[in-house]
Amino acid sequence: MRGRVSRLVAVTVASGLGLTAPRFALGHGFGQRYDLPVPLWLWVAGAAAAVALSFAVIGVFVRGTPGLHDYPRVDLLRWKLGRLLPHRATRLAARILAVGLLVLVVAAGVAGSQNPTRNLAPTAIWVIWWVGLAYVSALLGNVWALINPWATLFEWAEAFVRRGDPEARLALGRRYPRFLGVWPAVVLFLGFAWIELVFRGRAVPAYLALLTLGYSLVTWTGMLIFGRAVWLQQGDPFALAFGVLARFAPTEVRVISPAVCSRCVLCRDRPRICVDCYECFASASPSQRH
Length: 290
Known about the structure:
- About 60% of the residues lie in helices and about 0% in strands.
- It contains 13 helices and 2 strands.
- The chain has a two-stranded antiparallel sheet with strand order 1-2.
């Protein structure tokens, strides 16, 4: 009896944390369907209790953000091993690998076996990228901002355009409408969530390849109209999602020169020191980076 009660409590808590699905829901991404050994009302009650408790904890313990920028810090760039992380060669190797994996996943989805268990695409997208990178972002830092293959390909295209004319720009540089805020990213993320949880073809490699190409078209169009940095900050759902998770990580990038941030379209209006702006970090000199 005690074992059954323990399992029941564990399943209820896990359900409230979003780790399981109700009896009528399919699994996340792809895989087998599992039925919960609890009634639906109990699953709903557990989920509601977990959400309500989390808000109660925040209301009790989070009273403000005094000293938001005044916390103990250790600069990893003081050591030789730490300086390897933002080194140009390291970043270039990571970006090439990410771009290669993107091309490989699309090619596998189009030309490979359509059996989800025999194709790279479903595992690479749902397990390695979506779940794995979420944990990496929360535990290590905003790795996605460094290896985002869509941003890398657009940046390479911009560099190619400037080879003939240093003043040429690939992006049109249209002003981003302030009233839109991050709503484009919210809408795209809701669409992604629907694909993950509802769309029956979410594990079919060919469908995943087509969805990846469609997302590529939307992303590059946004970058082309508003600029790469602006679209990543306002309209790209995954740059924002992984960026939020990265705020839990013990690492951040900082630029100690206000002059560098004053020239950045993303953080020129932010007070004090620029934190976690990879645009400023890339343009700053090594002595201005932390």
